[in-house]
TrEMBL record:
It is a multi-pass membrane protein. InterPro entries: Csc1-like, CSC1/OSCA1-like_7TM, CSC1/OSCA1-like_cyt, CSC1/OSCA1-like_N. Residues 191-339 form the CSC1/OSCA1-like cytosolic domain. The chain crosses the membrane at residues 6-27, 82-107, 149-168, 352-375, 404-424, 444-463, 491-516, 550-579, 599-618, 625-645. Its main location: membrane. Residues 350-620 form the CSC1/OSCA1-like 7TM region domain. This is CSC1-like protein ERD4. Keywords: Calcium, Ion channel, Ion transport, Membrane, Transmembrane, Transmembrane helix, Transport. It is found in: Membrane. Residues 5-169 form the CSC1/OSCA1-like N-terminal transmembrane domain. Belongs to the CSC1 (TC 1.A.17) family.
Amino acid sequence: MEFEAFLLSLGPSAFIFLVLMFLFTWLSRRPGNVSIYYPNRILKGMDPWEGSSLTRNPFAWIREALTSSEQDVVNLSGVDTAVYFVFLSTVLGIFALSSLLILPILLPLAATDKSIKNSRDVTDTTSKGTFSQLDNLSMANITRKSSRLWAFLGAVYWISLVTYFMLWKAYKHVSTLRARALMSADTIPEQFAILVRDIPSPPNGQTHKEFIDSFFRDIYPETFYRSLVVTENRKKKLARAEAIFAATSNRPTNKTGLLGLAGKKVDSIEYYTDLINESVAKLETEQKKVLAEKQQTAAIVFFTDRVTAALAAQSLHSQMVDTWTVTEAPEPRQILWENLNIKFFTRLIRQYLIYFIVAITILFYMIPIAFVSAITTLANLQKAIPFIKPVVKITFIRTVLESYLPQIALIIFLAMLPKFLMFLSKSEGIPSRSHAVRAASGKYFYFSVLNVFIGVTLAGSLFDNLKALQQKPNSIVTVLATSLPKNATFFLTYVALKFFIGYGLELSRIIPLIIFHLKKKYLYKTEAEVKEAWYPGDLRYATRVPSDMLILTITFCYSVFAPLILVFGVIYFGLGWLILRNQALKVYVPSYESYGRMWPHIHTRILAALFLFQVVMFGYLGVKLFVWATLLVPLIVISLIFGYVCRRKFYSGFQHTALEVACRDLKERPDLEEIFRSFIPHSLSTHKPEDHQFKGAMSRYQDYAAISAA
């Protein structure tokens, strides 16, 4: 790929981003779109424009994002979102500080080494042997055994030291942020409860509930409150039928047979009302039957104070590991009730089975990714589809295909994975949604690194690499290091596409806007369904964090070899911080709160990316025949030690609630009955605090819709 193709990949992308940004400033000021661009504020009873007029400064969102504090993010989107911004700002700081020293030193050193042009191996290039200007700004332009390689070795140390400093600082900050939130004087229901699983069979004459109560009452006689077992049900069709009747004055009908397509035709409102009345009459009988005959081997146990609950969650309640397993209770809204009854050893077997399935998936998914990466290079594409040769000869089309085709194919392949990985994570028997998100995020990260970064890198010269590995199976590091130069331009373009197109679509929310208006007009009738159409959900950490980690890994691994990528890394994480800050304050609504439990996993994966970078640079300096490459070995060891020290110092505070945190006084005596009721699934509870908030949100939305219609 020649240099102009690389520039072409940036020009249209930047133009599309500007168009999407101006679309956002126009569409977000229209009252009919308020539920798409300001749902977070609507649900919290705030004025979307905070008292300003519809003709406000179109770039005011930038000022609002830059001037917002961390506490603003916590108040509107929770601690988990604030921790995500710590991640973005930490990585931004790493790349910005690294750039200050690396760019002014390494770029001139690479650009002024003139001896390489007559001696360079054509495989040692970022541009497939065309000797483009990109090669002149990379390590590929440095002569083998050159003394200039000392600067590149020093750059690896500089980036590593900056990373250690920023990660240590961030870990301390997140630990403080988490502790401050958990020390809140407000009542947090899950702080008064524990999750108990693997409950043994009760003695004859006792139910599970009686057995659980007696067990914990004996251990905690003064602070035990009660235990809870719940079930769930669902009903929705009656509300839809009534809404159709209200809108059309025609009483809807349906058939009572298979899938509503066969059987007797009846009045829908009367039919569903009769069914519900029958269900209500049977509900108490069914609940008693469940409690008496189908009680599960898991329960939520409540205490009268936070300290006892924290102590109980960290204590060993049985000599046998597979009985009376006790952990901190998750937030009520994120409990995966269907997983609580899965036995201890069944969970272990499932976990290892899922790991095996993920490993097999990574292995076999690498085949199509490697194939697509190999075939979507223009030369290979012309061999596979000969009739496109006349079209490809047109300069503009050729450069567009070279710039976009491989990256778009890769993005499409990655879009197929998230739901599958989330399904696998939940199948492990994980008890909470946030835990499942962390597990899915980890799988997606390793999948991305192994399949996308390493897979695409090796696939760039697929057959040559296979031949090299067959001759020397232990030469994977050397092969990876040798393959890096050939894919520098590919990954530069990939990062640019991610921040221009990806963040442009994120800010403009064009796709959610179109889907909302189509659903509202043609599909949805009830208020609940309209809310479902515009409800934005959360930041989707299960896919967003691994995607960011892939960019982090790419930027790390190319930061010394092709320093120009640091500029792209700074733009990606800087633009991401700005745009997602706006989205967090106005759009996304957190679906759970884990108080930063994701951070230790984020920290570990940043270190994993750093470790891979150090290993790859060790290999590439070896390819350059630089004998002092062995000086990187101590740095690799330091990274492992740093990770170990951080885990020993900080991780326990994320795994459990520290007693010094739990002992803080509350501003008022907790309502234990209210805490108990908060864990009852909404389908079984007559106490639904969300209903009031929902009706208020709908009334506010309808006010803005009326303004738009007028």
